[in-house]
Amino acid sequence: MKAKNIYSKALLGLSAIILLFSCVDDFEDANPARQLDAPFLKLTASDESAVGGDVVDFTVSVIDAPGVISDVEVSTTNDLGTVVINKSSIVGKEKGSFTVSVTMPFNYSGDFEVTIKAIDSQKDTETGEVSPKSTSVSAVVELDYKFAEPDFVVALADADGLLYSGESTDFTITVNSVPSGGVASISIVGVGGVVDFDQADIDALIGKSTGVITGTFTAGGNTTDGGVSVFIKDELQEVITNKVADIDVVCPAEIDMAGTYRAISHGVTRTGVEYHALEATVTLTKTNDGQYALDDNSFGEYPQIRGVAKSAGSLNICGSTVTPISGAFFQHKGTATIDGADVTIDIEWVNSAGDQGVTRLIRQ
């Protein structure tokens, strides 16, 4: 009887042990071990500013990487620069340091960001598959171009700085130096006219740091600020430098339009106030054969309706047509009727603030 009790107690103890292990297994199944923390990093840079071609060293201290470092990746602004990574000093370790050396690009200026990512080798605790964690650290280097921009001059032969529609003048582009090495490309644009040049002159300058290009500029049909605009890009830094030789392009008025005019206007202000048959006196003063200074762009609206000072400006008159001036606050367009010395000019106008009107000018 006593032996039977001992046997029963042994069976109960074994059952308890089995139950305990079963509970432990169930708990571990329901609560798998968590992954280890991602690497903890600290970054320092040898320089905060640099120019193209400089080498900046970045030191990354791995304070703790319980999952063990397996790889290092580096990215830079626009993927520029040359990157050298000293992986061997940290791969397979939980602590330590490594360096990244970046040769700064020549063809970038501004904030240059370098991002370094350290990746560990830990696995997913449930599946056993590789499931690494990573940490990224970044630093910004203030980067500037190493060399000065191309040095060149654009000159027009016309002495008085004015061309009438259809007239031509010679131009010369003299490239004095390209400090970074050589010319990559040259673009020549006519503003308010057309340019003519020999492409062979441009081709001969590619890769060189000095040279001369000649050509002609022919004025177009509208009165405007014209000239020859030249863009030169260097090979190494890819910097584009623009220089312009200015000239006034003039389409002359049919006759001299200068004088004092009676203005009769209908319009509406920027705030919606309408007015009709508003009379004022304005003056046109000749600047050149196609441009006239106007003492009141609003033809009386500003001083009489809005109670503010006159706004002086200009009128471009090509033949008998008033043409808008690009970029001006006031835009005028219209037609002049000429009968001997008698001149009547009908104008539609608007400004950037919303004032607008139609005006008839009658020369007195």
UniProtKB/TrEMBL annotation:
Keywords: Signal. Residues 1-26 form the signal peptide. This is Uncharacterized protein. The lineage of its organism: Bacteria, Pseudomonadati, Bacteroidota, Cytophagia, Cytophagales.
